[in-house]
Design brief:
Layout lengths: L11 E3 L12 E2 L12 E3 L4 E5 L11 E3 L4 E4 L12 E3 L4 E6 L10 E3 L4 E4 L1
Parallel strand pairs: 1-3, 2-4, 3-5, 4-6, 5-7, 6-8, 7-9, 8-10
Length: 121
């Protein structure tokens, strides 16, 4: 999915398919580093998004990243999240490996990772 054509002023991207009348038809992978620089929220739950998810280089304004119930895979590196981030929801995907849970932004509130194959302390 090409995110480079989104307007630079875009603040919210909501393509979640969690409404009863909608079905998750959005599929493929996308590079989160291509997001508009002022984006604050991405909601793309219950789609068929896949591939590895690179969380480094996210826009510093990103507050909410909601990508649960997709098909993302690979390992997760959580030690360089944007300072504005408050919620990261990646549950019910196919992430694997161990996690370093020692570096979160000040004010970070909610981390949802259940339904994956992760380990960590």
């Amino acid at each position: 999915i090409d995110l480079t054509n989104l307007p630079p002023s875009m603040y919210i991207l909501d393509v979640a398919m969690d409404k009863p009348t909608l079905k998750g038809d959005l599929e493929g992978s996308f590079d989160l580093r291509q997001l508009p620089p002022k984006i604050a929220m991405i909601a793309a739950q219950q789609n068929n998004l896949s591939g590895e998810l690179h969380l480094n280089g996210l826009p510093r304004t990103l507050i909410f990243l909601l990508l649960d119930k997709n098909n993302f895979s690979g390992s997760l590196v959580l030690n360089n999240l944007p300072t504005a981030m408050r919620k990261l929801s990646l549950s019910n995907n196919a992430f694997t490996g161990s996690l370093d849970l020692t570096h979160f932004p000040v004010g970070f509130e909610e981390l949802l990772l259940f339904g994956n194959q992760l380990s960590g302390e």
